[in-house]
Amino acid sequence: MTELAWIENALTGARPQAVAALLRYFRDLDRAEEAFQEACLRAMKSWPVNGPPRDPAAWLIFVGRNATLDHLRRDSRNTALPDEERISDLEDVEADMAERLDDAHYRDDILRLMFVCCHPDLPATQQVALALRIVSGLSVREIASAFLVNEKAMEQRITRAKRRVSQANIPFAAPDAAERATRLGAVAAMLYLVFNEGYSASGGADMVRASLCEEAIRLARLLLRLFPAEPEIMGLLALMLLQHARSKARVDAEGNAVLLDDQDRNLWNRSQIDEGLALVEKALRHRAPGVYQVQAAIAALHARAAKPEDTDWEEIDLLYQMLERLQPSPVITLNRSVAISKMNGAQSALDLIAPLAERLSGYFYYHGVRGAYLSELGRAGEAREAFGRAIALARTPAEAAHIRQHLDKLSKKNSA
Amino acid sequence: MLYAILCYHDEDVVMSWTKEEDDAVLAKRHKVQQELVDKGRMGPALRLLPTSAATTIRNSGDEQLVLDGPFAETKEQLLGFYVVDCESLEEVIDFAKRMKEGENTCTFEIRPMSIFQTGNLSGKETLAS
C-alpha cells in the first residue's frame, strides 16, 4: 500500500469517531465537519514525516478541536496565535485523550452522529444521503452518482437535510437506556436503508452501489462493536453480510438479474457467509427475536444450502410466520408464499396471496411472483397478463428484463 | 523452533480497505512466505473474524458468564496469525519484517511456541458445513 493509501485508510477508519466527538464538542454539524477536514489536512502533512499516531482518532479530534478554536479566536481577534509546534508533539496528550475516549460516552457520540441522520421528518433518501455525507464522508459527487442524480441536485438535497437537522434540537445529554434503545432502532433502520440503496437497484454505477452496501456493513460492524450485546444489531449485520455475499452471483455477464435458484453458489462470498452465520448464532442465544434477526436467520438457511433443493423450506416458512407476527405486512406474506410453493405447490401459494391482491396491486414483485406461479400451473394466458402488469410497474431496466425472461420461457414452453 | 507471528491492527482501518487493497496485502505477504513453503517450514495461517463475532466466557466468582465481544477493548485487535518454523529469532524477525513491508500501521508480535496437540482437522471445515 502506498503512503497516501494508508493515511487515507486511517482517516476513513477514524472518521465516524472523530466527527462524532467534534460534534459533541462544537454542537454544530458544519463546524464539526470543518474541524475534521482541517485535522485531515494537517495529518497529511504531519503523518508522513512523524509516522502514524498511535491513536489516529484521538489525534484528529485533538488537532481538529484546537485548530477550530484557534480560528474562532483569530476571528474574534482576541489573543495571540498559538504556534503550530504546540500541537506537533502529541505523545502525552494523545494518551490522555485515548483514555478519555475509551470511556463509555464515545459510544454515545457515534450513536448520536448516526442518529442525527435519522430525523423522522427526513424522507428515506435524504437520511441515506446525509449519513453517507456526514458519517461516511463520501463526496457529494460520489453520493450523486450512487443515486443517479446530478451533483447540483444532490448538493441541494444534502443542504436542505442539514438545515432541517440543525433546526431540530439535537439531544446532547447522555441518553438513558430507553432513549439509547430508540436511537439504536432508528439508526439500524437507517443503515439498512443505506444497504438497500446499494442492493436493490442495479444498472448505472454498479461499483458505487456495491460500495454503499460495503459502507453500510462497515458502519453496522462499528455499531456492533460499540454495543456488542445487542441481538438486533447482530441480526442487522448478519442480514447484510448474508445478502451481500451473493452479490457476484446475482447478476449474469449481460447484467441480468439471476434468481436465487439459478445462482452459481460457488460465486457466493464464503468469508461473508461465515461471519453472517456466526452472528446469527450469537444473536439467537439471546432469545430476543426481532425483525433483523429473523430475516438473517432466513438468509442463513439459504446460505447453508449447498444446492437449491437442499433448502430447508419448512424452517423458512416458520420464520416468515414469525416475521408476520413481529411486523405484519402483505409483502412478508408474499415472500412466505415462495416457501409454500416449494413445499405444497404453486396452487397453495396462489391461494395464500389471493387476499393480498388489492393491497399489493401496485407492487412489481406481486405480479412477478404471481405470474411465475400461474405459469408453473400452465395457465399461460393469465401468467402473461400478470407479467405484463409487472413490466409496467418495473422501476429499473433490470427488473423489466427479468420479467421478459419469464415471458420468453413461457413462449418457449407453449411452442414446445 | 516454532514461532507464531501475531498480527495486530486497528479493525476500523482494516475494515476500510477495499477488496483490492486487502488482496494486495495478502499477495505481498504470500510472496515472502513462499521461501518457507519451499523449505517445508511454513505452518498454517489463520484469519480471525472481526471482534464483533467474538464471544467471551469469564467467571464472576463461581458463575460462568458468556459475554458478547472480545476479551479486551483495545486500540488494536488480534486479527490473525501465522505459524512458522525458523532457525532463530533473527531469521523469524527478518521474515516478519519482509512480510510486513509497506504496512505502516500494523504491528506483528513474534511468540515462540510449541505444538501442544496437532488436532485432526482437514483444514477444509467451514461454519456452513
TrEMBL record, chain A:
Family annotation (InterPro entries): DUF6596, RNA_pol_sigma-70_dom, RNA_pol_sigma70_r2, RNA_pol_sigma70_r4_t2, RNA_pol_sigma_r2, RNA_pol_sigma_r3/r4-like, TPR-like_helical_dom_sf, WH-like_DNA-bd_sf
Location of the RNA polymerase sigma-70 region domain: 15-77
Domain DUF6596 intervals: 183-283
GO biological-process terms attached to the record: DNA-templated transcription initiation
GO molecular function, a single term: DNA binding
Domain RNA polymerase sigma factor 70 region 4 type intervals: 114-164
Coiled-coil parts of chain: none
One Pfam family here: Sigma70_r4_2
Superkingdom: Bacteria
NCBIfam families for this protein: sigma70-ECF (TIGR02937)
Alphabetical list of PANTHER family matching this protein: BLL0085 PROTEIN, BLL6612 PROTEIN-RELATED
Protein's name according to its UniProt entry: RNA polymerase ECF-subfamily sigma factor
